[in-house]
Amino acid sequence: MAGTRRRGAGRGRPTLEEVAARAGVGRGTVSRVINGSPQVSERARLAVERAVAELGYVPDRAARALAANRADTVALVIPEPETRLFAEPYFSDIIRGVSAELAEADLQLLLILIRTPKERQRFAEYLSAHRVDGVLLVSVHADDPLPDLLERIEVPAVLGGRRSAHESVPYVDSDNAGGARCAVEHLIERGRAAVATITGPLDMYAARCRLDGYRAALRTAGREVDPELIEAADFTEEGGRLAMRRLLARRPRLDAVFAASDVMAAGARQVLREEGRRVPEDVALVGYEDSAVARHMDPPLTSVRQTTQEMGQAMVRVLLREIESRSERTADRPRLVLPTELVRRGSS
């Protein structure tokens, strides 16, 4: 008898019409129950849920998304080469947090790497076809045009970090300046006289803020900021190695280093070992992020903890609010700055 088959019986998957016939209600009532609408009587809801269970009905996700003018997909965009994606714990932690939060919301994650202007243009065309509901963008450089493009085509977006202090796009960030200041204050309190820093790329606001925190700690302690103790790098291990060599060439008697990432601190540690400098006896070392790299170094690395996985989760929550309220957007955009803390270990 049509409309009364059980799970696995007959051919093909059960349809919405069959569920309606089995429950004795209209097709619209079934749709409202499946989509969680409160505008359904308790009796009808129970009848539909029973019919769904008996028939083994599975909603057509694509059709449901089309009807709601939604793609049920969020893009996480990382404008970096895959070598950085797989080498730096920051990205894996962000992905883990984003993925977990999207799974809770029953949304799909689309991971996109953008390395060239051509790839950026291709992604812009993809967005114009409304194939995603929103975009999460991390590792943002000051000259990246993608955030402004997202604003122009009115795609809800949230940044992990900021391009500047006047960021117009919603963002989730950490207290970069405060974390760096705390790290350098710790080194000064430990009696270190020549505290150097290895910065990230200074076209990134996070790197500039960490450098600002370094300078602020020195000035608060009544010390001058020595440009010879500052070396820019690129958040990579090789960048940390090169920067450490340059610092030692200029200031061989330095006795402390604050590296703006754990990965760069690991590169610096290798050079210090090659040069016969003991950590922490000769040179104290502090990193930033408190990743697995910090815990597995020898000695374990003192590091500024930023809750990277929680940052990814917070980005999703902010984005979902932006998606739901896209028709009510105001000048008061979401801005969230997460706290940091210094985790002291043997390297300092």
Strands, count: 12
Average pLDDT reading: 88
Morphology: elongated
Predict the CATH topology of the largest domain: Rossmann fold
The CATH architecture classification of the largest domain is 3-Layer(aba) Sandwich
Overall helicity: 40-55%
Strand order of the largest sheet: 2-1-3-4-5-11
Low-confidence segments, ≥5 residues, pLDDT <50?
1-10
Report the CATH C-level class of the largest domain: Alpha Beta
Number of helical stretches of at least 4 residues: 14
Q: Tell me the name of the CATH homologous superfamily of the largest domain.
A: Response regulator
The secondary-structure element order is HHHHEHHEHEHEEHEHEHEHEHEHEE
Question: What is the gyration radius calculated from CA atoms?
Answer: 26 Å
Keywords summarizing the entry:
about 350 residues; alpha/beta; 434 Repressor (Amino-terminal Domain); Rossmann fold; 3 domains; 14 helices; disordered N terminus; LacI/GalR-like_sensor; transcription
